[in-house]
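Hi everyone, sorry if this is the wrong subforum. Our group has a chain we'd like a structural model of before ordering constructs, and none of us has done structure prediction before. Sequence below.
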Amino acid sequence: MNAVLDRPEHYLDPGWCETTERYILKLFRNYLFHKLDEVGAPWIDLPHVLQCLNKVDTGSHEQIILTSPHEQSVIICSYKDVKNNFEKCFAEVFMPGAL
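Answer:
Right subforum, don't worry. Here is the predicted structure as tokens:
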């Protein structure tokens, strides 16, 4: 995911991950890896991460709720949507002209 989201050539453009398909990928990355426990400390649930990545890989139609860090944006999408967005963004970055 970071190969698509954290592109060094776009560091000067703060909106790079805040638009289109990349925004859903950014929120999904946060959903997986930027959790906090009840006292606000960083926390990672490896079984949750693996389960979610497997659902993305298989293109599950199960719905998930993705929220921005300050809960100002909420998006409901499926794991299949995340997979499709990743494939589109990957093609954009690594196979220019393929779309």
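For your construct planning: Strands lie at 35-36, 42-43, 63-67, 74-78. The helical segments are 2-5, 20-33, 46-58, 79-94.
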